[in-house]
Amino acid sequence: MISFLIRRSGVMVLTALCLTFIVFFLTNLEPNLEKLTKSEGNMRMTDVQVQSWLEKNGYRQPLIKRYGEWLGVSPGWTNTDDEGKTTGRCIRRAEDPENPAKYCGLLQGEWGFSLVFKNDISTIISEKLALTGKLMMWVLIVMVPAALIIGVIAGMREGTKTDRTLSGFSILSTSTPEYVSGVILIIIFSSKFGGLRWFKGTAATAMENITFENFTLPVVTLALYGVGYIARMTRASMAEVMTEQYIRTARLKGLSFPAVVLKHALRNALIAPFTVIMLQIPWLLTGVVIVETLFNYKGFGWTLVAAVGNNDIELLLACSVVAVMVVLVTQLISDIGYVFLNPRIRVN
Question: Which of 88, 90, 162, 307 could form a disulfide with 157 if both were Cys (CB 3.0 to 4.6 A apart)?
Answer without folding.
Answer: 162
